[in-house]
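Data deposition worksheet. Section B asks for the primary sequence of the deposited chain exactly as it was used as input, without tags or linkers unless they were present during the calculation. Section C holds the resulting structure in token form. Section D is free text for depositor observations; keep each observation to a single sentence. Incomplete worksheets are returned to the depositor.
Section A, Depositor: J.P.
Section B:
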Amino acid sequence: MGWFDVKIISEHFDVPEAKQLDYYERKGGYRSARKAVAMAPEAISAEVVASNLRGRGGAGFPTGMKWSFVPKDADTVYLVVNADESEPGTFKDRHILFWNPHMLIEGMIIASVALKVRNAYIYIRGEMAREYRVLQAAIDQAYAKGYLGERVFGSGASVDITVYRGLGAYICGEETALLSSLEGGRGWPRLKPPFPAVKGLWGKPTIVNNVETIANLPWIVEHGGKAFAELGTGRSGGLRIVSVCGHVKKPGVYELPLTVTGRQLVEDVCGGVPKGRKIKGVIPGGVSMPVLTDAELDVPFEFDALQKDERIREVEVRPGQKFDLGGGRTLRTMAGSGGVVVMDDATDITQAAWRIVHFFAEESCGQCTPCREGTGWLAQVAHRIAFGHGRAGDVDLLASIADGIAGNTICALGDAAAWPTLAFLTKFRDEFEAKVRDAHPVVVAGGHHHAPAHGDGVTGAA
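Section C:
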């Protein structure tokens, strides 16, 4: 059996009729939800725990464990599906929303029964107008058939789903900022603890799960958590959907076993790098994740392997000084959001690094100083290095700024800018140093020299 023969969520991608409830039901859809409403909530949760399903939004936290944090005596619990996908290079959730909306809805019914949720929400990125229309039409179909609302499938369970369109702020993909936005406030992250599972939407226990995470639930209920776990490896159950972009012959969205290595993904699944060029770097999980070199690709693109496999070099602050992830832990890379970015050997890594930190500087919400000021400085220094105006000491300065941001911000956006910066410096330091060595200071009126701020005279990027 080949890689493409095993599918949980993507089987009917690219089938136009798959968006329709009748088609979905003919293929066995809503069978698991009917089964779930007759099950005890604890029994559903036990299957999710047994499945080893890990969150597919970025953190990879065990879903069953997350659910277990909801207080047993809570009178009101909310479920929120995070569909604010916007990490550069990541576009797999919007594919699920567009091609398989009923599987998400069915998964939400199952999760709502398990968590005793009456009102569930989908927070979708505002720019996803096409996906929103498809999703809302599917929800309307489900209401019309009595699969949502009062007495779902004629049972005692009642579930309402509301779709909320965000306004296009990257920070609103962070779960506490998302909840603030959903409440009608500014999309600012909140300090944790308390975690949303204890105090979330409107102060009530709230589970925030990713689209792909929830879409796996119908399969788990139908086949059992153990069968899902056996599809995966180690502590990670099931399959994984990845989006691949950049320098590959066949970019796209693929659902694959967790045992597939980075090299197999690029060479076998995506057809390799075009024009006979070679791989220079691969970002495995959205641009916030540390980059891998060609020599580090023979590792499964799986949660634990990407964090721990010793074939992947540890990220350093400077040569010989390993970056402390916290508690003495070191950082290699992570599976993140499943957005794979491939760069060939013609890529200017310094410009790629600048483009990434520029994005995070633009998207910082500005609430905390290390992120607001730090990401801006990262972008400034990275820009002058990348575009030939670097100064002596700039490479170490860039590393120092990134190290100062990491772990010192309210939410993970600061880390999202710092980690890839440090990884680029660790693995491609020679390129940064060469750019500084060959730099040309800018002469302005009066004979003074300066390096331009990012954005000055920039007409393109990596």
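Section D:
Residues 369-386 form the longest helix (18 residues).
The chain has a mean pLDDT of 92.
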